[in-house]
Amino acid sequence: MYLHHHPFCPHSRFVRLLLAEYGLEPELVEERVWERRPGFLALNPSGETPVIVEEMAASVPGAFIIAEYLDETRGLALGTHRLLPEDPAGRVEVRRLTQWFNEKMYVESTEPLVRERIHKRYMSREQGGGSPDATSLRMARANLRYHLKYIGWLAKARKWLAGERLSQADLAAAAHLSVADYLGDVPWDEDEHARDWYARIKSRPTFRALLTESIPGMPPSKTYADLDF
C-alpha cells in the first residue's frame, strides 16, 4: 500500500493515524500539491492529498473516502475497537464530528495556518508563495480557540469525543491539532479538558510517527513531542 501525502497536511495525518490503528504501514510518498505533479493528478485529478493506492486496486482519494474504505474493508477485524460504532446513531455522530474537523476546522483554522506558515516557504511567487498574510493568521488563530473550546466541551461530557470509545472523530481532531501544535498556535492553557484528551491521544503508540516529523529551519513548539505537556 502507498499513501500519497504531505507530512503537515491535516487530512494526511488523519489517514496516517487511521492506518496505524488498523496496523497498516504504507509506503509514504510525499506530494507538494502546489506543484501539481502529473503522476499524482492521474491518481486524483483534484490534486489534493491524501490518496492511498493498493496493489491491484484503484486509487482511493480523499480523507473521508479513505476512512469509509478502510472501515468497509477492514473495520470488522478490529472488533470492539472498530473506529465506527455498530449502531446507526453512533455512526452518524462519529461522521458528523469527523466532518466538522476535516471540513469546518480545516477551512477556518488549520488550512490557513499550514498554507501561510509552511507551504508558502516552498512555493514560488507564481504558485502563491511569499510572506505569511497576517490577517489570515490572526483569523485562523482566533478560530482555533473556538474549535479548541468545542473539543474541550465534548471531552468533558464524554469519554471520547463521539462517545464511549475511540473513533475516527478523535483521530481527525487530533490530526488537525497536531499541525497547529507543531507551529505553537494551540493555547493549551485555555482548556484543560481538551489538553487532557489530547494528551491521551498523543500517548498512543499509533501517534509516535507523527511526532518525529519536522520542518527544516522550523523546529516544533515545546509541547509538540512532550507527552506530559
From TrEMBL:
- Supply the name of the protein: Glutathione S-transferase
Ranges for the GST N-terminal domain? Answer: 1-78
Which keywords annotate this record?
Transferase
Instruction: State the Gene Ontology terms under molecular function.
Output: glutathione transferase activity
Enzyme class, top EC level, equals transferase
SUPFAM superfamilies per UniProt:
GST C-terminal domain-like, Thioredoxin-like
List residues of the GST C-terminal domain.
87-220
Q: Which GO terms describe its biological process?
A: glutathione metabolic process
Ribosomal protein: is it a keyword of this entry?
no
**Record-linked Pfam families:** GST_C (PF00043), GST_N_2 (PF13409)
Oligomer and partners? Homodimer.
Q: InterPro entries in the record, alphabetically?
A: Glutathione-S-Trfase_C-like, Glutathione-S-Trfase_C_sf, Glutathione_S-Trfase, Glutathione_S-Trfase_N, GST_C, Thioredoxin-like_sf
Tell me where on the tree of life, at the top rank, the source sits: Bacteria
Q: What is its EC number?
A: 2.5.1.18
